[in-house]
Design brief:
By secondary structure, the chain is an all-alpha fold. The protein is about 70% helix and about 0% strand. It is built from 10 helices and no strands.
């Protein structure tokens, strides 16, 4: 794809047909990757800083199809043999179509949302840096919260280690279970608590 995009202009992209041949493979690749990515992230129930990435990728895929459709229709309307540069210069067609403009706006909004979410978590983490996550939380408070959200005994055990900032590998070694099992229990804890990371979990317990 890289070689195609770099070398194709050397052929002299002038007509609508050649212009579509230049853009179409890349646009279709974006559509395919978007839907593949959406399907993959759709299997992950746990939220992340990427804020429903599966939904975003589906939107990208749909807009990608719309971009391909608009380009092909435009090419057919003005004639595949027409000179693209002349059409753009005359204002008969725009350098970008409506779907591309919508796509750019959605990507910009999405990236701003991800950045905001990321920096909020960073600021929250900085505010308690240097102290244990458990802080003023007593075992009684943690036990009460674990019971209120229906954690199992094993999940309660892992919750304690999470609040002590133990890594997955450390918890795995301490409890003599696989890292995959620890991740599965951690995912269940986050899901029951309706959070996506330890910082949010701590804040939720403190507010309970």
């Amino acid at each position: 794809m890289f070689i195609w995009l770099v070398m194709f202009p050397l052929l002299g992209v002038r007509t609508g047909f050649l212009y579509i041949c230049y853009l179409l493979p890349f646009q279709l690749l974006v559509v395919v990757l978007a839907f593949i990515g959406s399907k993959s992230f759709g299997r992950v129930a746990q939220k992340s800083i990427f804020l429903k990435l599966g939904v975003f990728l589906r939107v990208v895929g749909i807009l990608g199809i719309a971009i391909v459709f608009e380009d092909v229709v435009t090419g057919l309307y003005y004639g595949l043999g027409s000179d693209v540069a002349d059409l753009v210069a005359s204002g008969a067609i725009r350098s970008r179509n409506i779907s591309e403009n919508i796509f750019q706006i959605i990507v910009a909004v999405y990236l701003i949302a991800v950045a905001a979410h990321f920096f909020v978590d960073k600021i929250a983490a900085k505010s308690i840096r240097g102290e244990a996550l458990t802080g003023e939380l007593s075992e009684e408070v943690i036990d009460a919260y674990a019971t209120s959200i229906g954690l199992s005994l094993r999940e309660r055990e892992i919750l304690g280690f999470l609040l002590k900032e133990k890594s997955v590998q450390e918890i795995s070694g301490l409890l003599f279970i696989s890292a995959g099992t620890v991740k599965s229990h951690t995912h269940n804890i986050y899901q029951k608590a309706d959070v996506s990371n330890r910082m949010q979990l701590l804040q939720k317990i403190r507010c309970s």
